[in-house]
């Protein structure tokens, strides 16, 4: 039988699980720094891709699966791949609008509109990040928060959490935190695409197109 917690308990567990994920993510960054100094392979592009993909699967997806189970939902209910047409419509439409802003920005800065060469980082940005981040943040977190809050409130809270998820990486890489506002805004769009399509496919497609441009 699937576990089912009360709405209040489920939201509390979701918050606590997210805090644990952030702490584990910070630890993963420290471990990566240590490994880069002692294991040459992890410092390579392929090694770094393998490390971070494995870290996300263990530190993000396993807890996300636990949160989904606690909500009483199944993976089929969370993903709803049968709604792929709605996901393509909403995710594609909203993602292209976001991408258009990226195209304009790249054009004015004299940068290529689309990626010009293959890299493991490109695979991570276009495939791994949209899929795993959307499953965690929209499939598990947003879905759980909606058991207690309205969609609008849950989307805002989960978008703040989405920004927080990125902060450790920004700090360790020395990236300015000025990207917090844009990340928050696009997260609202990803959540809306998921909500309207009734499937994380919408969020994944919107996320992919945003990252592509």
Structure characterization notes:
- The N and C termini lie far apart (44 Å).
- The chain has helices at residues 7-38, 45-70, 75-79, 84-108, 120-145, 151-173, 180-197, 200-212.
- It is 79% helix and 0% strand.
- The radius of gyration is 17 Å and the shape is globular.
- It has eight helices and no strands.
- The chain has one domain (7-212).
- The chain has 213 residues and is mainly alpha-helical.
- The model has no long low-confidence stretch (mean pLDDT 94).
Summarize the structure in short.
The protein is mostly helical and 213 residues long.
| SS element count, helices | 8
Note poorly predicted spans. none
Number of strands: 0
Q: What's the overall average pLDDT, rounded?
A: 94
Question: In oligomeric terms, what are we looking at?
Answer: single chain
- List SSEs in N-to-C order: HHHHHHHH
SSE diagram, text form:
Elements: H1 7-38, H2 45-70, H3 75-79, H4 84-108, H5 120-145, H6 151-173, H7 180-197, H8 200-212
Keywords:
about 210 residues, mainly alpha, 8 helices, about 80% helix, globular
């Amino acid at each position: 039988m699937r576990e089912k917690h009360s709405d209040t308990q489920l939201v509390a567990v979701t918050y606590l699980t997210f805090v644990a994920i952030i702490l584990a993510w910070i630890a993963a960054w420290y471990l990566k720094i240590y490994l880069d100094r002692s294991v040459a392979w992890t410092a390579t592009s392929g090694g770094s891709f393998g490390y971070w993909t494995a870290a996300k699967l263990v530190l993000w997806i396993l807890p996300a699966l636990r949160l989904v189970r606690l909500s009483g939902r199944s993976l089929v209910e969370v993903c709803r791949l049968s709604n792929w047409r709605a996901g393509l419509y909403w995710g594609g439409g909203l993602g292209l609008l976001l991408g258009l802003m990226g195209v304009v920005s790249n054009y004015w800065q004299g940068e290529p509109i689309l990626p010009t060469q293959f890299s493991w980082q490109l695979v991570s940005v276009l495939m791994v990040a949209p899929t795993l981040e959307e499953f965690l943040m929209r499939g598990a977190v947003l879905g759980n928060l909606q058991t207690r809050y309205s969609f609008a409130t849950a989307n805002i809270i989960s978008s703040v959490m989405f920004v927080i998820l990125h902060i450790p990486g920004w700090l360790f890489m020395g990236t300015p935190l000025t990207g917090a506002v844009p990340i928050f805004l696009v997260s609202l769009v990803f959540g809306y695409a998921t909500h309207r399509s009734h499937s994380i496919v919408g969020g994944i497609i919107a996320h992919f197109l945003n990252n592509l441009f």
